[in-house]
């Protein structure tokens, strides 16, 4: 188990390093922050002093070296828009996104497992067709469109839910619902396919012949063997929820890391962009490690492969 976790961690570290390098150089292609933070009629001398004070006049390789040195001390510079360390700004916003994902993912898993398992028990039946139709719609509908329609219908037309913010539990209903829709649609299809295979196995037929109840056959005998591909896809969907929060938080005005990242790109706050990407990547890295451990616990063959 230890060797398996170490190997997966090492692969993730290399991916993380590549991402950091890519984000550092791509962020600087958006232009100079002086164009946004200084008046349009600012003199060249003022622009030079602004860039000199922030280190933007140095060659890119010098800036990158300084960034790597700071990264070793978990120091990613100071935010231009908040005049605070970028790490503090990101860590203050991240709990909101984490809470959004922590609420959404259990709902996704519960709905997907129950719906997909029941649909697989009688393939081609009324419930199976209805579940497949709804899940395909959910899996193919863009988050931003659902979010806008949700605001229009429930907040503007009927006025039963707020349009934005995080003040009350009602403020979380639309964001959680929007984030739940797509991964649930994907996972229902995966659970259905996996459970159809599991339910056609010989040990399930034996259990039916011995008079075991349908509930026990579905959720005890077949589900454990049908969970392996579900765990793999669920990890991708969990990471997708963290990434998809960028759109949802922007539409609903959620003060999470997604909205912060968009605002930082628009304001060319390089330090916050880099810190936000790094923290998000670390979160996805931890999710993948936890999923790998779960996968190894469910299927002992993984530990020794």
Ordered list of secondary-structure elements with their pairings:
Layout: H1 2-27, H2 34-37, H3 44-54, H4 60-72, H5 86-121, H6 126-140, H7 143-157, H8 173-199, H9 202-209, H10 214-252, H11 257-266, H12 270-298
Helix pairs in contact: 1-12, 5-6, 5-8, 5-10, 5-12, 6-8, 7-8, 7-10, 8-10, 9-10, 10-11, 10-12, 11-12
Structure explained in plain terms:
With 305 residues, the protein is mainly α. The chain has a domain at 87-264: MetI-like fold (Orthogonal Bundle). It has helices at 2-27, 34-37, 44-54, 60-72, 86-121, 126-140, 143-157, 173-199, 202-209, 214-252, 257-266, 270-298. Helix 6 crosses helix 8. It is elongated, with a radius of gyration of 24 Å. The termini are close together.
In whole angstroms, how far apart are the ends? 10 Å
Major sheet summary line: none
Count, helices = 12
User: At the fourth CATH level, what is the homologous superfamily of the domain at 87-264?
Assistant: MetI-like
């Amino acid at each position: 188990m230890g060797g398996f976790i170490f190997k997966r961690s090492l692969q993730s570290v290399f991916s993380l390093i590549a991402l950091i390098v890519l984000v550092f150089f791509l962020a600087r292609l958006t232009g100079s922050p002086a164009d946004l933070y200084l008046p349009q009629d600012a003199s060249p001398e003022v622009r030079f002093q602004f860039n000199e004070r922030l280190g933007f006049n140095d060659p890119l390789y010098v800036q990158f070296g300084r960034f790597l040195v700071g990264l070793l001390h978990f120091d990613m510079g100071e935010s231009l828009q908040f005049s605070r360390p970028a790490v503090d700004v990101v860590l203050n916003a991240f709990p909101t996104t984490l809470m959004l994902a922590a609420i959404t993912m259990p709902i996704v898993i519960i709905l997907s497992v129950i719906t997909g398992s029941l649909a697989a028990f009688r393939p081609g039946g009324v419930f199976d067709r209805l579940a497949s139709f709804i899940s395909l719609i959910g899996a193919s509908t863009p988050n931003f469109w659902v979010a806008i329609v949700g605001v229009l219908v429930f907040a503007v037309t009927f006025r039963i839910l707020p349009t934005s913010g995080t003040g009350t539990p009602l403020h979380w209903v639309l964001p959680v619902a929007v984030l739940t829709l797509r991964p649930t649609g994907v996972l229902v299809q995966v659970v259905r396919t996996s459970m159809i295979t599991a339910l056609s196995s010989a040990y399930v037929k034996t259990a039916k012949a011995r008079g075991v109840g349908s509930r026990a056959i579905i959720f005890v005998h077949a589900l454990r063997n049908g969970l392996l591909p579900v765990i793999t896809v669920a990890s991708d969907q969990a990471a997708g929820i963290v990434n998809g929060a960028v759109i949802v938080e922007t539409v609903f005005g959620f003060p999470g890391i997604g909205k912060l990242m968009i605002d930082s790109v628009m304001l060319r706050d390089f330090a916050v962009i880099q810190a936000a990407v790094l923290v998000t990547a670390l979160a996805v890295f931890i999710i993948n490690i936890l999923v790998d451990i779960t996968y190894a616990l469910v299927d002992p063959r993984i530990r020794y492969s």
